[in-house]
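Sharing in case it's useful to others searching the archive later.

Someone asked me privately for the predicted structure of Dol-P-Man:Man(5)GlcNAc(2)-PP-Dol alpha-1, so I'm posting the question and my answer publicly. Question first, with the sequence:
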Amino acid sequence: MAKLAPSLKALINAPAAKPFPVPAPPGIADLSRPDPVYAAELIREVGLKCISFNGIPRTINCLNAFRAALPAPTAARLCAAPSRAPPAPAPATLAARAAAGRALWDSVYRPFEAKLLHKLALAHPDLPVVIMHGHYALLLADPADDLSQDHPVAQPAEHGTTQPGEYGADRPGDGPGDHPPRLARLGRALTSLTAIACLRAQGGVAPQVVSHVFGLRKAVEDGSYRAAGGSLPDGDGAEDEDEGVRWLAGDEGGEWVLRTVDSIAEALGGIGMARL
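And my answer, the predicted structure tokens:
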């Protein structure tokens, strides 16, 4: 085969033609990457809601290990104010939390929400009380923004300075006398995904996995996944999140969720590892 003329080779490789791949900009790795503090608070909130599906001991160990593994500057900037302990006495607040829990329950289990509560009561009269008030109302339903206002915020550690433009820089609680900053919120869809992932990984609870797979679909059907306080900050990728939730609620997305959980569980020791 004839060789290319030197002038042709030179023309092909001329700098003006940009003949070779352009190196990625130095900041490309940070594009669309959430702030580490926001990501850590979101992961921590997922871990807390796992109490309802995997139990208290595992959640304690998981959250302790997660905190210990965080970089010191990130750990120092985490919100330290509780968001679910109502000021006392607060009958109106408790009633509001109960209503929020019942609304979440109805959204997940409709049109069988009342029938399921009756079935739980037949197993034990306090079972629906514990599930509804101890889990759906207090834990699984995202807390209202005003529940943590009376709780002090721990002072930031040495590396806890918030820089302008960072997550938390414009949150309440950064200045003297301000209210505590709001903890991360999972929102309706990510709460269902947390339930699906926890239950699938532990094994032996297929009926509950089915319930929460349908629960995710119902979040799309009734629009509750769009409620304020979801997994992304306001205005940050809202359209992409909307499309993603709809895909995850479909058959293809549901299979992807289950297979992803299976692959992670298998790598860590196999399906049903939570029972070990």
